[in-house]
Design brief:
- By secondary structure, the protein is an all-alpha fold.
- The chain folds into two domains: 245 residues, no CATH class; 64 residues, no CATH class.
- It has 16 helices and no strands.
- Helix 2 packs antiparallel against helix 7, helix 7 packs antiparallel against helix 9 and helix 8 packs parallel to helix 10.
- It is globular.
- The C terminus is likely disordered.
Length: 319
């Protein structure tokens, strides 16, 4: 245990720092500059209400007012432990405002949602260790990552973004160790928490042999299918409307918002695929003619997704 704590010393220190800064900047900090109301992330309140409903097994209420949930249920699942304590303690989930300046529930929900965001710090450090990054560069990575995580945690209240990135990094780490099944399940959990991590799916597929891709994709899709299917069975109309119509920003804030959102995502997807193909071709040509790789090695790496052993430098703690 002591060895593990020592190996993850930097993300642990960064987590403690993020927790302290996050709680200070949302509670005591605003009062120091004369504000009467705590500077709380309003976006998390609806998700907390959905999490309390899920803790009471009210699956049909996930997508009904006032949760405002328009994503997959994984964003709610990660808050269920906190929601269960909130419910048991009888704490109110009244929206912060002029009539609720200092909601006591934030003293529980705040540290919890900041803490779950810190999974990204540990995932990034583990991946950096796997790649042989030096000790002090990992310290810099932890400090920079903690600074970035303040925004989705303490400022905006979207822990699902950070958790999904952490799960994605662990999936990449599992792939580097040839644990394809575990990587598939981790990717599936990440997608269920925040579907935008699907943008990284082509990168993960690029290192897989063709024969392993179908099972990987099934594992990546199954958690979302199960949870969303359960919500749809419990309340089809609310689930279908929220997931397909997206009654939230930018749909409700702009005329023809849905059309522009579809166009934007479609163009982004086409450009992303084109960029992947262009990068794949450029890397192959550079490896062949600049670095002088033999044609057999170029074919193995870029056609069959075989990773050369020298690319994965093990640190002394793992050797």
């Amino acid at each position: 245990m002591r060895d593990r704590l020592k190996r993850r010393m930097f993300p642990l220190i960064a987590s403690i720092g993020l927790l302290a800064v996050g709680m200070y900047s949302t509670t005591w900090g605003p009062t120091m500059i004369g504000a009467k109301e705590w500077a709380l992330p309003y976006d998390i309140w609806g998700t907390l209400i959905a999490a309390v409903r899920l803790a009471h097994l009210n699956i049909g209420g996930l997508y009904t007012s006032p949760t405002g949930l328009v994503s997959l249920p994984g964003a709610v699942v990660i808050l269920v432990p906190c929601a269960a304590i909130i419910s048991a303690a009888g704490l109110s989930l009244q929206i912060p405002g002029p009539h609720n300046l200092h909601p006591p529930v934030w003293l529980l929900a705040g540290p919890y949602q900041i803490a779950v965001c810190c999974v990204t710090l540990f995932a990034a450090d583990a991946l950096a260790e796997r790649l042989g990054v030096s000790f002090w560069k990992r310290a810099l990575l932890a400090a920079a990552s903690a600074g970035i995580l303040w925004s989705p945690s303490a400022r905006w209240g979207h822990p699902e973004d950070a958790v999904a990135v952490g799960l994605l990094l662990y999936a990449i780490l599992a792939l580097s160790r040839s644990r394809t099944a575990l990587a598939g399940w981790l990717m599936g959990a990440a997608v269920c928490v925040q579907p935008l991590v699907l943008l990284a799916l082509p990168v993960l597929l690029a290192v897989l042999p063709w024969r392993r891709m179908p099972l990987f994709l099934i594992r990546a899709a199954l958690p979302s299918a199960v949870l969303l299917g359960a919500a749809a069975i419990a309340n089809w109309h609310a689930t279908y409307t929220s997931v397909t119509s997206q009654p939230n920003s930018p749909i409700i804030n702009h005329p023809n918002g849905k059309i522009w959102l579809v166009v934007f995502l479609s163009v982004m997807l086409v450009l992303m695929i084109f960029g992947y193909l262009l990068g794949w071709l450029a890397n192959g040509l550079i490896s062949r003619y600049v670095f002088g790789w033999p044609a057999s090695k170029v074919s193995a790496v870029y056609m069959r997704s075989e990773v050369p052993p020298e690319w994965l430098k093990l640190s002394s703690t793992q050797a």
